[in-house]
Description:
With about 130 residues, this protein is of the alpha/beta class. It has helices spanning about 1-25, 30-35, and strands spanning about 45-60, 60-65, 70-75, 80-85, 100-105, 115-120.
Amino acid sequence: MNILLREGRLTRHVAFVAAILVGLVTFGASPKILAAxxxxxxxxxxxxxxxxxxxxxxxxxxxxxxxxxMLFTVTYDSTTxxxxxxxxxxxxxxxxxxxxxxxxxxxxxxxxxxxKKITIEPGSKGSSQ
Length: 129
């Protein structure tokens, strides 16, 4: 009889732990819980803005000096909105060395900015305005 009571308690204990685990899966475990379990949550990009002069330009990729020798790689593609400071549309060909820009997008874990919007500042060297 004593063995049955122990087994009954053990069964209730196992059922309780299982219910907690099902609840975590059902309601979504926080990243801290996942990290504690040895699982890494997917990396999340951070909204970021960089302002500075283009020091290198290649199709889809810019190096921007934001001052004090802080260089950022800014990537862009056909979905990136490129415009002049007054809101008029600009082209990727307007993004040349010496042009001052404001790039808004996501900062990746690698330190690159994936631009969603690039604004060419007025009076920039090499800009068409």
